[in-house]
UniProtKB/TrEMBL annotation, chain A:
First and last residue of the signal peptide: none
Function summary: NDH-1 shuttles electrons from NADH, via FMN and iron-sulfur (Fe-S) centers, to quinones in the respiratory chain.
Keywords, ordered alphabetically: 4Fe-4S, Flavoprotein, FMN, Iron, Iron-sulfur, Metal-binding, NAD, Quinone, Translocase
Record family assignment: Belongs to the complex I 51 kDa subunit family.
E.C. no: 7.1.1.-
Superkingdom to which the source organism belongs: Bacteria
Record PROSITE patterns: COMPLEX1_51K_1, COMPLEX1_51K_2
Protein name: NADH-quinone oxidoreductase subunit F
Catalytic activity: a quinone + NADH + 5 H(+)(in) = a quinol + NAD(+) + 4 H(+)(out)
Domain NADH-ubiquinone oxidoreductase 51kDa subunit iron-sulphur binding: residue ranges: 335-380
A Pfam family that the UniProt record links to this protein: NADH_4Fe-4S
Molecular function terms from GO: 4 iron, 4 sulfur cluster binding; FMN binding; metal ion binding; NAD binding; NADH dehydrogenase (ubiquinone) activity; NADH dehydrogenase activity; quinone binding
TrEMBL record, chain B:
Superkingdom of the organism of origin: Bacteria
Family that this chain belongs to: Belongs to the complex I 24 kDa subunit family.
Compositionally biased tracts (Low complexity): 306-315
Gene3D superfamilies listed in its UniProt record: Glutaredoxin, NADH-quinone oxidoreductase subunit E
Cofactor(s) demanded: [2Fe-2S] cluster
Keyword Zinc: no
Organism encoding this protein: Actinoplanes cyaneus
Chain coiled-coil ranges: none
Key words of the record: 2Fe-2S, Iron, Iron-sulfur, Metal-binding
Record protein name field: NADH dehydrogenase subunit E
Region (Disordered): 227-252, 267-355
Length: 438, 355
């Protein structure tokens, strides 16, 4: 393993991850000693509109995948409309490859609570919910404890720090449905229904939770807010690029020597990240990777110098997503991997719209047949055709996400498919798994 | 005052769980108790280990919705089990990344070793096995969890077998990064939103090397983000609500105070805390189904629904019910007003009983 070069090390920007080094930062006393709850005091001394302007000035963009400007989203909430406003934090981390929010909530839960207070104050919400993935039990345990401590210390509840501002914050555990990471499905789930996406418009900013104006933000977005309030917009913009400002937690997994969380300014490249992670594992050569979870089009070794910011990845034909970078080598099969992702999308499809429900059902079966050595060349056209009929035609992004690895592997790795079809590659699945596939 | 009655199907669970159910309902805005359905289903699993017909009946009767509505939700989510489960739920991630790094092999080995398949329980009732989708710990792949707590990182068939053997023998090994192991039923209590009752459990588990890799690297090389000054001023164009009220003592001024005042004006005295954030009762009375139907066909007076479209409003019996009915105009979909006044009355009865 080689040491990363100094100029690459300089790209590290420990901001959101910094408190993780203090093993007891999940306790309120320790958090307060590490600048904790300073931002909320500062924020409550300014007008909510000025806070929204600050977030706009910082260029903060959503960390959940789509990268929507956060200040703009907050500004969409109509003020003086007589309706209750809600802040809902999307902590339903489940995108394959994504593992940045769970450690944040486990090792620094108060930063999310503090961000929630500031964001609620800015959008004039007196109620906020953290919808946390059901399986994230330890993170939820720490988060609930943090909320309890925050109530006891007067950071939550009525008349917070004498400001006249009230906030109730509830941590709500989901129950194992990937689709609930989609913001409107999350809202339906939070209202006690099956988690199925809603038709938009109306957007949540107008009719979200309980048909009231609602901001839905990712954990990373909200946890960034206290730092911007403290350090200011200009400091925040000193990291990242002009259009993609700030630090981002890059989650590296797969065939690198040291998988893990690397917080760097937006715009770093995969080549530099692999260097930080100690290089590729011995005997492995980079073949394909996801820039931000399995729902973002796969990129290949030739994209290793793509700038990992919203614009750079888009220019390469993919999406920055959650910066969950799953790195695969020449010893991994893109066809097999795509099949396994499709089994996931098939299982998680909520069933509301036909393209996603039926398309995934049939694509999974086509993949099984190819991987069992019974595929035909026509199967590839069927896959392409099915994927094209899902992409852009399904109700929400889950369908698009499912079509994505299919389309991108067919584009980059058609020969790997032909290997199974022409008998050059040994089948990966047994006949048993083909029951019902004909 | 009448006490809340339950049908014989739901009564045994109600006897044990009604107090906890009330606490759950009280977390949500008045009239919005249906939001409590997911935590209530977790709560039911603390007693039964799965969602039984009695559990469905209990949730339905607490919320004043029908059993089909509860069943529709319970069957949608993976974590609501439809058959009895074991003392421990062992989940192996077999999504792509864990899969290619050995997760599939781990799962196949456990299947063979325990003699059970996906979502099946060993005859001794100790272990329910499942293959899971991405558990959000890809930097530790492949991972195995026990009752959703990260127990074995970088799992191998050997380490996974050692884990289940130890569980089968009645031991509770220390998880890699989660809290100390409890039973699946005890875990459901936490999923229902209650604090972990075990002293010190919340502090269990330390961050693993992969989690800290980037930040440690920065620490080792003395790298920090320059120019951070926590006193950087925020540009002010308007006085803050706090400053405004300080200038005009005695007067409630500023947006935040105005909103707070509106909240308090509407909220009943008994349940002031529950009403925070609910500035008005209008505007959020429709359930998503109705909204969707209206969006599809805005000119349609009554959304298409099977069954009767005539409003059959039950007589309001308690003060809370009457208040709920008054506050919730019928949605025009043949449903009783508000849909969940039952939940509201259950909460208010709990409040009255405490007095």
């Amino acid at each position: 393993m080689t040491q990363p070069r100094p100029e690459v090390l300089q790209k590290l920007t420990p901001v959101l991850t910094k408190r993780w080094l203090s093993p007891d930062a999940w306790q309120i006393g320790v958090y307060e000693r590490l600048d904790g709850y300073q931002a909320v005091r500062k924020a409550l001394d300014v007008h909510p509109d000025d806070l929204i302007q600050l977030i706009k000035d910082s260029g903060l963009r959503g960390r959940g995948g789509a990268g929507f400007p956060t200040g703009l989203k907050w500004g969409f909430i109509p003020q003086g409309d007589g309706k209750p406003h809600y802040l809902v934090i999307n902590a339903d981390e489940g995108e394959p490859g994504t593992c940045k929010d769970l450690p944040l909530m486990t090792y620094d839960p108060h930063s999310l609570v503090e961000g929630a207070i500031i964001a609620s104050y800015a959008i004039r919400a007196n109620r906020a919910f953290i919808y946390i993935r059901g399986e994230a039990v330890h993170a939820a345990r720490r988060l609930r404890n943090a909320v309890k401590e925050a109530y006891a210390a007067g950071y939550l509840g009525e008349n917070i720090l004498g400001s006249g501002f009230d906030l109730e914050l509830v941590v709500h555990s989901g129950a194992g449905a990937y689709i609930c990471g989609e913001e409107t499905a999350l809202l339906d789930s939070l209202e006690g229904f099956r988690g199925q996406p809603r038709l938009r418009p109306p957007f949540p900013a107008i009719a979200g939770l309980y048909a009231s104006p609602t901001v839905v933000n990712n954990v990373g977005t909200i946890a960034s807010v206290p730092y911007i309030v403290l350090g200011g917009a200009d400091w925040w913009k000193s990291m990242g690029t002009e259009k993609s400002a700030g630090p981002m937690i890059y989650s590296l997994s797969g065939r690198v020597v040291n998988p893990g969380q690397y917080e760097c300014g937006l715009g770093i490249t995969l080549r530099e990240l692999i260097e930080l992670a100690g290089g590729m594992q011995p005997g492995h050569n980079l073949k394909f990777w996801t820039p931000g979870g399995s729902s973002t089009p796969l990129l290949t070794a030739e994209h290793i110098d793509t700038a990992m910011d919203f614009e750079g990845v888009a220019a390469a034909g993919s999406i920055l997503g959650t910066t969950a970078m799953q790195i695969f080598s020449d010893q991994d099969c893109p066809v097999y991997n795509t099949w396994r992702w499709l089994e996931f999308y098939h299982h998680e499809s909520c069933g509301k719209c036909t393209p996603c429900r039926e398309g995934n059902y049939w694509m999974v079966r086509t993949y099984r047949r190819i991987l069992a050595g019974h595929g035909t060349v026509a199967d590839l056209d069927t896959l392409q055709d099915t994927a094209d009929n899902i992409f852009g035609r399904s109700f929400c992004g889950l369908g698009d996400g499912a079509a994505t690895p299919v389309v991108s592997t067919l584009k980059w790795f058609r020969d790997d498919y032909l290997g199974y079809i022409e008998g050059r590659t040994a089948p990966r699945l047994s006949e048993k798994s083909l029951v019902g596939a004909h | 005052m009448t006490t809340t009655e339950f049908t014989p199907a739901a009564a045994p669970l109600a006897e044990k769980l009604l107090g906890s159910a009330r606490e759950i309902l009280a977390r949500y805005p008045a009239g919005r108790e249906r939001s409590a359905l997911l935590p209530l289903l977790h709560l039911v699993q603390t007693e039964e280990g799965h969602v039984s017909p009695a559990g469905v009946a209990f949730c339905a009767e607490v919320l004043g919705i029908n059993k089909a509505q509860v069943g529709a939700v319970a069957t949608f989510y993976t974590m609501y089990k439809r058959r009895p489960t074991g003392e421990y739920l062992v989940s192996v991630c077999t999504n792509t990344l864990c899969n290619v790094l050995g997760g599939q092999e781990v799962y196949d080995t456990l299947t063979e070793h325990l003699g059970v398949g996906h979502d099946e329980t060993t005859p001794d009732g100790r272990i329910t096995l499942e293959h899971a989708e991405c558990l959000a710990a890809c930097d530790y792949a492949p991972v195995v969890t026990v009752n959703y707590d990260f127990t074995v990182d970088q799992a191998t068939p050997e380490s996974a077998v050692a884990l289940v053997d130890s569980l089968t023998a009645g031991e509770r090994p220390t998880p890699a990064r989660g809290a100390r192991i409890c039973s699946l039923k005890e875990m459901q209590y936490q999923l229902a939103g209650f604090a972990d009752p075990r002293e010190g459990a919340v502090g269990d588990g330390v961050a693993g090397a992969p989690t800290l890799r980037g930040v440690r690297l920065a620490e080792q090389h003395g790298i920090a983000v320059a120019g951070f000054d926590p006193d950087t001023p925020i540009t002010k164009t308007k006085p803050s609500p706090r400053e405004e009220s300080a200038e005009k003592p005695g007067k409630v001024a500023g947006v935040v105070q105005a909103a707070t005042a509106a909240v308090k004006a509407v909220a009943g005295k008994v349940e002031e805390r529950r009403h925070a954030g609910r500035t008005t009762d209008t505007g959020d009375v429709k359930d998503p189904e109705v909204r969707t139907a209206e969006q599809r066909n805005p000119t349609m007076a009554t959304p298409d629904r099977t069954g009767t479209t005539e409003a059959t409003q039950p007589p309001a019996e308690t003060p809370a019910e009457r208040a709920g009915v008054a506050a919730n105009a019928p949605a025009g979909d043949g449903k009783p007003a508000g849909d969940s006044t039952r939940g509201e009355s259950i909460v208010s009865q709990g409040t009255e009983e405490q007095k």
